[in-house]
């Protein structure tokens, strides 16, 4: 916590200046130790498919993007949205519809973009409808919840042949199969990411196959995480947090609070859309269960359990909760899962990751010296 | 009537009150003064039972109430007017006043008349939501609400804050009247020198969480002496 | 001012409110900065402000007093845009701002401190102050302005403390500091010293006077502490029953028997 | 406890054990139907293992509860295929579930049995849709009801693919039987209030109603129509045989309801209700089980079909097993208790569907079930109308009636 | 054809469903700031208790229904003590660890959602383990009335009557009695209420208990007409949330009004265009209502009243 005084204002080394963009009071992880740990974690994820079920982890990482989208919208800007799955689902369906109609590498690449835009645009529309209409607080939560239910009810009944967009039948409750395999690039210069295992041979380990999709998702997840760290530690991020803390007050500083919420909500929608695109691409399938009440609740669970004011928390909790959900078996599985959620939120209300961070910081500094998880240290000034 | 002996109290783990000794006799009006943040509000909350002392004891009316809950103390006759505007914002003015009565079995019309007499605006706005009153009106409501409970010991935390000067004077007089007529014992915190001089029989001075001095009537009459405690 | 501003680096988030405060310090003080015209605010059947014509000149320091419930806070809230006027208009720098959003009024140079302190409790003092400053300053300059604002609020050493943990008086100081850090042309303060001890009252009085004199910020201050009012104000407006009751120099007002009757009491 | 049997490798499957994946809902919206499915699979497996297994190989199982959640189905399907290397997979109640996992099945060329009565039309080289199709379910019950009560039909159906396609089939069959559909209404799966539906039926005043309601919420319809005094006869492909409403609801809510099914616990064949029959064996293994339903029997006999095919192929290698299945496996009443004594059911190799023995089962005022009519009804839509022939023309399509019948539009 | 009687009866039906679905949730959410995602499971408890009380214990239906409500109320109190306020765990931890382990969930919307979601998983699965995938259902009492070509379940009309009665009773309890005043005061400012002599712990407990009992009673009342299985509560959730929020700040009045408005929309559109359109219409109406009346119906009424007074 004395780093700033050690290498003072302007003449800091390049790595530390670079690092400073990722750091600030709005994120956990201000120390060299954190970044070392981060690098180790990334390295583990890179080699994980050699040992474990990379396919499953790729799903969790896709969902972690959805978790991150809620973390920005809710954890950093205070808008508790139950509708991230709407933008997720719209992203997924848009990707499906566009790619089925234009099943060439260029078309599929465009479908990815369309999915992200679709997620963002639908969030923009809903956001405009709400925020510029003066809807606030729990009313936002319920409007987004109702939007989810509307989507679920509506999409489930699009089974008839009249519900087709070009070649793509929406397929109702049965969903949309026949989505082309995710391929990025243009004709002649493209790469297919799904069902295209890449054979590897490592001396000492042997031969195995790795999934390019896994690494695509890993890259996107790390990129998104770091990108959001920059965002939330920027001036704009500070305003987002101010909006979360007190909207009226922030308005009184001349900030257009409505616009901030609108912009962040749209960004969150685009991110959820990206997650949806990857979800549909991975499963080569999408159906309306993504709009179900259960699925809509999950992001709120991940982000609450991980720590809503922590991007890292959203990621870690998504991976952990989804792993547990899939792998717990037997009659008592749901009882145990329920108990786990209940106890975690009661005992660690600010979330698991901030709690862990606090423990680590405290053991490092000794009790009494440590601030709270989000307590700023002197180094926060460097993020200016 | 009230006796604090070596009371230490903390929010979470940070100690705020340290080893406070203080006593109030039956029928007295005792002031507490001190700079911002020395722990005056914390002292009153501890007396009221909203904060449990970690050490020391509190006795009220001869019984030990150190570990009694706030509502028990309220039923035992301690009334409290919190600092700031702690009215129930979504209840009407009338309901707020009725809340003051919850500890008594039947309502006393004459008390109402008296309160409306002091603060006519409360009667005019009986069915307005308390949260929409002006700052000063809320403060009046808080006082009126405490008075209907007709407490034996009344705790007042900066009653003059936000109140127009003419009513501040009136409040000091009214408190004395209540003290005279009903025998209500009063322990109050104030920043307003005038109010302290006007009301207090005796006064404690606090610094950094503890009582550092006790001022008798003669000292209280001396404006400069009080200013010293509040200013330095 | 901001209607004429052409600065290229206006942050997309907020206003550029820096320039004019300094300009004003040297400028002409008789120009009308704010003018309300027949301003009415009704709550249900109750009229809180009734046809109020109220004006503040550039660089002026005006106090607003009056009985509890006279409509003082309501008037300030109308000026900031927190309340929508039932009738009447508000002019600022000659422009009609009656229908502007609060944040737009701030970007034109009006800043306000609420009656109840409302700093960002979970953010550090530094983060609190940085929020207004970052709108118009970057890098080294920002650092300097933040440090200055913290120092002016007497909070040096508390930079990394959560604002919610500050004492009442410190929060008031911080809030004034944040409002002033916007370098507004007009700063509205609702009971800035309520609940403060004598020493802190003096500190805030001094602070207000200095901001007014050195930076030319015009003030409207609501306060019930008459000593405090006397120590800062030149001009006083008395509201009563939602209407402007008296207006004039403080000495005149204090000795007005009608004001004494409705507000000051006996021979206070 | 993933993979109790340890991760089996490709080579292990051709030795002394083989592995079957069973993914059926034991919680969630479809648990009522899914739970007996899982149990019946286990019954068949235990019987086979007790009798020396398949070609001397004992059957291991990979069994999980997908909780009526399609995402979970997809992951468990991947696990079953990639981690557990199952030799054959049974999975899913609803058509939506089937479609959710079919891309994974097809991509991995996994032998898959879908054992629910469904809308029909799936022509997929890796999928054996061995439950009766809408044409078979409605094919037995609808003509009978037209004959008995008259030609005017009102259709109510679950508002998703199964319901909508089934409603299309009602129109096709009405046309073929000189009946007419007065009206149809599709009900969202989440709906459980049927006041307006009941009024609309009364307003249309049909001779009988065809009901293809699905899931726990829709069950409420029957009690609500009874308490509203609506006593029109009802034909159904979904009620009673799947969710045993005649056992769960107080009589006479289900009175005068006619179910077109290949099986239900009350089907009066000797091998079913006789001493030591299917019903006895099931409740001996699961004394607390509430009911033995239509899909359970399908799981049961299809496990025996698989056994026969493996024995015929002499290997568990999936392409060879599929070839054996496509040769046309036949089962008698012992393994397929829906078939009366002396009759058989047959897997049609061209379409991967089964020529079922269909029954009309009627509930009376006391909810006693009687068999009104029964006969074999072959699958015809894929084989005759759509021309599905998988051994010759491998494909992964679902055909729908609108493409072939004007009246379905 | 829009038949007036049909429409009226269906309106009553929808109204009763929405109001009963929402009542318990409304109190727990509106008064305590707790979003109870286990609301559906509280309904389940009421429905199962009433059903089993009839089929296993042979109690008369009406008694069984009251029992359903009471048992759920008691379960609610238990939930409040253990989870929502954490009072019991804290009592233990105070004596072992010397500190509280749980912060009460009052006014912590999202946290209360996660916690009660966990609870709902436990309850649903618990019911499944204990009672299987369904239990036998009881018959609907009172028979049917008919008019022309139509007939209608008498019980559904009784339900409408009961829902109105419950609303009135709840309204009276929370706005006209000292208990209601104290409960509301407790939620608004716990410390001050304590200082006024209110045993706030008991207020929280009772308020939650009453909300739970209402949910349980809803389950009991609908037990004869819905399918008895562990997820039966889910079908009430959507209407419940929508009604509560569309209703706005005055909990009981709001629920009644939104039950009326939404019930009318649902009945009309289902009647004219079928169930699917009815449902979509309900949801879209809710979206529009929330957008244009961001404070709900009662917030809007408040504004109207003010405006009218202004123009006087
Ligand atoms: N809920 C709380 N948690 C932690 N610390 C608190 C809390 N409330 C007050 N404090 C701290 O306790 C100290 C004493 O506060 P208290 O409110 O008792 O002071 P006071 O003498 O009443 O001041 P003032 O004159 O400003 O009202 C202050 O430093 C304050 O920051
Ligand atoms: N939302 C509202 N509904 C009804 N009446 C209101 C509302 N807000 C304010 N009022 C009334 O308007 C009047 C003016 O209130 P205002 O807060 O402006 O007074 P003030 O002059 O600031 O008083 P104080 O000095 O006590 O703070 C008061 O009588 C108050 O009760
Ligand atoms: N196949 C069905 N019933 O969905
Ligand atoms: Mg205080
Ligand atoms: Mg005011």
Structural class of chain E: mainly alpha
**How do the strands line up in the largest sheet of chain A?**
1-2
CATH architecture classification of chain E: Orthogonal Bundle
Strand coverage percent of chain A = 5-15%
Q: How many separate domains of chain A?
A: 1
Helix/strand/pairing class of chain A, anyone?
mainly alpha
Rg of chain A, nearest Å? 22 Å
Any idea how many domains of chain E? Answer: 1
User: What is the ordering of alpha helices and beta strands of chain A?
Assistant: HHHHHHHEEEEEEHHHHHHHH
Number of helices of chain A: 15
**H/E topology pattern of chain E:** HHHHHEEHHHHHHHH
Cofactors, ions and other ligands in the entry: adenosine-5'-triphosphate, urea, magnesium ion
Report the uncertain regions of chain E. Answer: none
Mean pLDDT of chain E: 87
CATH class of chain E: Mainly Alpha
Transmembrane segments (chain A): 33-51, 57-76, 85-102, 108-131, 138-155, 213-232, 262-281, 293-320, 332-356
InterPro entries (chain A): ABC_transp_permease, ABC_trnspt_urea_permease_UrtC, LivM-like
Main location (chain A): membrane
Subcellular location (chain A): Cell membrane
Describe the structure.
- The complex is a heteropentamer of chains A (384), B (232), C (268), D (409) and E (312).
- Chain A has helices at residues 3-7, 14-20, 32-51, 54-76, 84-101, 105-131, 137-156, 212-232, 235-245, 247-251, 257-283, 293-306, 311-327, 333-347, 352-365, and strands at residues 164-165, 168-169, 183-186, 189-192, 198-202, 206-210.
- With 384 residues, chain A is mainly α.
- In chain A, helix 4 packs across helix 13 (311-327), helix 5 packs across helix 11 (257-283) and helix 12 (293-306) packs across helix 13.
- Mean pLDDT of chain A is 86; it is low at 1-10 and 366-384.
- In chain A, the strands form three sheets. Chain A has a two-stranded antiparallel ribbon.
- In chain A, 64% of the residues lie in helices and 6% in strands.
- The longest helix of chain A is centred in the N-terminal third of the chain and has 27 residues, at 105-131.
- Chain B has ten helices and ten strands.
- In chain B, the strands form two sheets. A six-stranded mixed beta sheet of chain B has the order 6-7-8-3-9-10, sandwiched between helices. A four-stranded antiparallel beta sheet of chain B has the order 2-1-4-5, covered by helices on one side.
- In chain B, helix 7 packs parallel to helix 8 (193-199).
- Chain B is globular.
- The mean pLDDT of chain B is 86.
- Chain C is α/β, with parallel strands linked by helices and 268 residues long.
- Chain C is built from ten helices and ten strands.
- Chain C has a six-stranded mixed beta sheet, with helices on both faces.
- In chain C, helix 4 (125-133) packs across helix 5 (139-152), helix 4 (125-133) packs parallel to helix 6 and helix 5 packs antiparallel against helix 6 (168-181).
- Chain D is an alpha/beta fold and 409 residues long.
- Chain D starts with 16 loop residues before the first strand and ends in an 11-residue tail after the last strand.
- In chain D, strands 7, 8, 9, 10, 11, 12, 13, 14 and 15 form a nine-stranded mixed beta sheet that branches.
- Chain D has helices at residues 31-50, 70-83, 95-107, 134-149, 161-176, 195-204, 216-227, 245-248, 270-273, 278-285, 294-313, 318-326, 381-386, and strands spanning 17-23, 58-64, 88-91, 112-114, 122-124, 127-129, 152-158, 180-187, 208-212, 234-236, 257-261, 330-332, 344-348, 353-363, 369-377, 396-398.
- Mean pLDDT of chain D is 91; it is low at 1-14.
- Chains in contact: A-C, A-D, A-E, B-C, B-E, C-E, D-E.
- At the D-E interface, helix 1, strand 8, helix 6 and helix 7 of D face helix 1, helix 5, strand 2, helix 10 and helix 11 of E.
- The complex binds adenosine-5'-triphosphate (2 copies), urea and magnesium ion (2 copies).
- One adenosine-5'-triphosphate sits between chains C (43-44, 46, 48, 66, 68-74) and B (128, 132-137).
- One adenosine-5'-triphosphate sits between chains B (11, 14, 16, 34, 36-42, 83) and C (165, 167-168, 195).
């Amino acid at each position: 916590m004395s780093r700033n005084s050690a290498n003072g204002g302007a003449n800091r080394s390049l790595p530390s200046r670079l690092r400073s963009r990722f750091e600030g009071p709005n994120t956990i992880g201000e120390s060299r130790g954190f970044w070392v740990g981060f690098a180790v974690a990334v390295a583990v994820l890179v080699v994980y498919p050699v040992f474990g079920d990379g396919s499953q982890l790729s799903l969790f990482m896709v969902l972690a993007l959805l978790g991150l989208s809620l973390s920005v919208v809710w954890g950093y800007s205070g808008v508790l949205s139950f509708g991230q799955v709407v933008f997720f689902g719209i992203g997924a369906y848009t990707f499906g519809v566009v790619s089925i109609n234009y099943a060439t590498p260029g078309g599929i690449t465009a479908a990815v973009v369309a999915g992200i835009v679709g997620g963002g645009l639908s969030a923009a529309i809903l956001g405009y409808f709400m925020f510029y209409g003066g809807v606030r607080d729990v009313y936002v939560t319920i409007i987004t919840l109702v939007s989810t239910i509307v989507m679920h009810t509506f999409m489930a009944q699009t089974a008839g042949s009249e519900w087709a967009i070009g070649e793509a039948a929406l397929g109702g409750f049965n969903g949309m199969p026949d989505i082309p395999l995710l391929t990025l690039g243009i004709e002649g210069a493209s790469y297919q990411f799904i069902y295209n295992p890449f054979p590897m041979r490592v001396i000492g380990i042997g031969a195995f196959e790795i999934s390019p999709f896994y690494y695509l998702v890993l890259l996107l997840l790390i990129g998104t995480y770091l990108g959001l760290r920059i965002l939330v530690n920027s001036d704009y991020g500070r305003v987002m947090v101010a909006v979360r803390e007190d909207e009226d007050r922030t308005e009184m500083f001349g900030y257009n609070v409505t616009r901030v919420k609108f912009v962040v909500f749209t960004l969150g929608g685009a991110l959820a859309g990206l997650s949806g695109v990857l979800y549909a691409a991975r499963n080569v399938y999408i159906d309306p269960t993504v709009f179900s009440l259960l699925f809509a609740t999950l992001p709120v669970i991940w982000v609450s359990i991980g720590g809503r004011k922590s991007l890292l928390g959203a990621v870690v909790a998504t991976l952990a909760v989804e792993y547990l959900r899939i792998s717990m078996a037997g009659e008592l599985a749901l009882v145990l899962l329920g108990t786990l959620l209940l106890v975690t939120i009661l005992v660690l209300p600010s979330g698991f990751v901030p709690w862990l961070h606090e423990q680590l910081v405290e053991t490092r500094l000794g009790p009494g010296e440590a601030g709270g998880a989000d307590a700023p240290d002197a180094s926060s000034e460097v993020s200016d | 009537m009230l006796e604090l002996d070596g009371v230490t109290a903390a929010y979470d783990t940070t100690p705020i009150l340290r080893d406070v000794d203080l006593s109030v006799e039956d029928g007295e009006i005792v002031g507490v003064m001190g700079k911002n943040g020395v722990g005056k509000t914390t002292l009153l909350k501890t007396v009221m039972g909203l904060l449990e002392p970690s050490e020391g004891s509190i006795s009220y009316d001869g019984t030990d109430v150190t570990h009694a809950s706030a509502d028990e103390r309220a039923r035992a006759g301690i009334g409290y007017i919190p600092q700031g505007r702690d009215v129930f914002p979504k209840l009407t003015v009338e309901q707020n006043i009725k809340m003051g009565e919850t500890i008594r079995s039947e309502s006393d019309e004459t008390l109402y008349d008296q309160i409306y007499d002091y603060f006519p605006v409360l009667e005019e706005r009986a069915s307005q939501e308390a949260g929409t009153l002006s700052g000063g009106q809320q403060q009046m409501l808080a006082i009126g609400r405490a008075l209907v409970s007709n407490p034996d010991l009344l705790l007042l935390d900066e009653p003059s804050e936000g109140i127009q000067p003419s009513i501040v004077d009136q409040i000091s007089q009214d408190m004395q009247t209540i003290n005279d007529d009903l025998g209500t014992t009063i322990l109050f915190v104030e920043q307003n020198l005038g109010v302290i001089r006007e009301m207090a029989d005796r006064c404690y001075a606090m610094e950094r969480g503890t009582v550092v001095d006790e001022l008798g009537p003669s000292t209280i009459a001396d404006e400069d002496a009080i200013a010293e405690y509040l200013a330095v | 001012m901001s209607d004429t501003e052409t600065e290229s680096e206006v942050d997309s988030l907020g206003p550029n409110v820096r320039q004019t405060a300094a300009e004003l310090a040297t400028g002409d003080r008789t120009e009308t900065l704010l003018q309300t015209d027949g301003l009415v605010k009704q709550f249900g059947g109750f009229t809180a402000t009734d046809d109020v014509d109220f004006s503040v000149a550039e660089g002026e320091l005006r106090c607003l007093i009056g009985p509890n419930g006279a409509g003082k806070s309501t008037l300030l809230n109308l000026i900031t845009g927190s309340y929508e006027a039932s009738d009447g208009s508000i002019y600022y720098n000659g422009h009609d701002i009656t229908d502007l959003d609060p944040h737009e009024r701030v970007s034109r140079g009006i800043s306000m401190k609420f009656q109840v302190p409302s700093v960002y409790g979970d953010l550090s003092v530094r983060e609190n102050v940085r929020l207004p400053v970052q709108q118009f300053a970057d890098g080294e300059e920002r650092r300097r302005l933040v440090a200055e604002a913290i120092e002016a609020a007497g909070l040096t050493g508390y930079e990394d403390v959560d604002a919610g943990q500050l004492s009442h008086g410190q929060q008031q100081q911080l809030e004034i500091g944040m409002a002033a850090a916007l370098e507004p042309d007009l700063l509205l303060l609702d009971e800035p010293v309520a609940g403060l001890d004598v020493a802190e009252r003096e500190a805030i009085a001094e602070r207000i006077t200095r901001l007014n004199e050195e930076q030319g910020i015009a003030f409207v201050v609501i306060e019930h502490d008459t000593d405090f009012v006397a120590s800062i104000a030149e001009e006083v407006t008395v509201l009563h029953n939602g209407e402007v009751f008296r207006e004039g120099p403080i000495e005149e007002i204090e000795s007005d028997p009608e004001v004494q009757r409705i507000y000051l009491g006996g021979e206070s | 406890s993933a993979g109790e049997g340890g991760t089996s490798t490709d080579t292990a499957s051709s030795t002394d054990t083989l592995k079957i994946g069973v993914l059926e809902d034991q919680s969630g919206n479809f648990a009522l139907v899914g739970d007996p499915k899982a149990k019946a699979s286990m019954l068949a497996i235990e019987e086979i293992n007790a009798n020396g297994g398949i070609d001397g190989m004992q059957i291991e199982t990979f069994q999980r509860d997908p909780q009526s959640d399609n995402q979970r189905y997809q992951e468990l399907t991947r696990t079953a295929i990639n981690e557990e290397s199952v030799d054959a997979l049974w999975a899913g109640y609803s058509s939506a579930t089937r479609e959710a996992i079919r891309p994974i099945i097809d991509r991995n060329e996994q032998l898959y049995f879908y054992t629910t009565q469904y809308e029909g039309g799936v022509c997929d080289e890796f999928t054996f849709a061995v439950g009766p199709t809408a044409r078979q379910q409605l094919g037995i019950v609808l003509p009978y009801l037209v004959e008995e009560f008259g030609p005017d039909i009102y259709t109510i159906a679950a508002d998703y693919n199964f319901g909508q396609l089934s409603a299309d089939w009602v129109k096709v069959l009405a046309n073929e039987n000189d009946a007419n559909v007065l009206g149809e209404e599709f009900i969202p799966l989440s709906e459980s209030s049927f006041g307006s539906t009941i009024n609309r039926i009364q307003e249309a005043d049909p001779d009988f109603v065809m009901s293809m309601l699905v899931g726990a919420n829709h069950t409420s319809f029957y009690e609500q129509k009874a308490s509203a005094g609506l006593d029109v006869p009802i034909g159904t492909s979904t009620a009673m045989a799947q969710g045993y409403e005649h056992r769960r609801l107080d009589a006479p809510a289900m009175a005068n309801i006619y179910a077109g099914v290949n099986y239900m616990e009350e089907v009066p064949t000797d091998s079913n209700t006789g001493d030591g029959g299917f019903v006895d064996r099931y409740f001996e293994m699961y004394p607390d089980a509430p009911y033995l339903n239509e899909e359970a029997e399908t799981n049961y006999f299809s496990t025996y079909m698989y056994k026969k095919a493996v024995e015929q192929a002499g290997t568990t290698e999936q392409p060879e097993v599929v070839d054996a299945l496509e040769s046309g496996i036949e089962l008698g009443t012992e393994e397929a208790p829906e078939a009366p004594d002396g009759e058989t059911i047959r897997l049609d190799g061209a379409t991967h569907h089964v020529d079922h023995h269909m029954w009309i089962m009627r509930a009376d005022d006391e909810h006693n079930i009687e068999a009104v009519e029964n006969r074999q009804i072959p699958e015809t839509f894929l084989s005759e109308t759509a021309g599905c022939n998988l051994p010759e023309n491998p494909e992964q399509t679902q055909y729908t009636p609108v493409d072939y019948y004007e009246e379905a539009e | 054809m829009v038949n007036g009687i049909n429409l009226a009866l269906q309106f009553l039906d929808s109204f009763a469903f929405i109001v009963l679905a929402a009542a318990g949730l409304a109190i727990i959410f509106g008064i305590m700031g707790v979003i109870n995602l286990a609301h559906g499971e509280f309904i389940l408890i009421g429905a199962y208790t009433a059903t089993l009380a009839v089929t296993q214990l042979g109690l008369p239906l009406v008694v069984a229904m009251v029992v359903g409500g009471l048992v759920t109320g008691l379960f609610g109190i238990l939930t409040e003590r253990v989870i929502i306020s954490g009072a019991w765990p804290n009592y233990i931890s105070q004596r072992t660890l010397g500190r509280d382990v749980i912060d009460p969930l009052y006014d912590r919307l999202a946290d209360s959602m996660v916690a009660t979601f966990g609870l709902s998983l436990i309850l649903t699965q618990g019911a499944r383990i204990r009672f299987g995938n369904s239990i036998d259902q009881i018959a609907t009492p009172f028979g049917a009335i008919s008019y022309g070509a139509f007939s209608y379940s008498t019980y559904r009309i009784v339900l409408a009557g009961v829902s109105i009665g419950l609303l009135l009773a709840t309204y009276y309890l929370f706005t006209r009695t000292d208990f209601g005043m104290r409960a509301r005061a407790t939620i608004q400012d716990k410390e001050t209420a304590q200082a006024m002599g209110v045993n706030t712990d008991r207020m929280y407990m009772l308020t939650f208990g009453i909300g739970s009992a209402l949910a349980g009673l809803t389950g009991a009342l609908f037990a004869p007409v819905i399918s008895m299985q562990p997820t039966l509560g889910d079908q009430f959730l959507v209407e419940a949330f929508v009604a509560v929020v569309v209703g706005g700040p005055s909990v009981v009045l709001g629920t009644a009004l939104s039950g009326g408005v939404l019930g009318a929309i649902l009945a009309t559109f289902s009647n004219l265009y079928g169930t699917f359109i009815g449902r979509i219409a309900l949801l879209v109406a809710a979206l529009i209502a929330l957008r244009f009346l961001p404070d709900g119906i009662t917030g809007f009424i408040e504004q109207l009243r003010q405006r009218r007074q202004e123009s006087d």
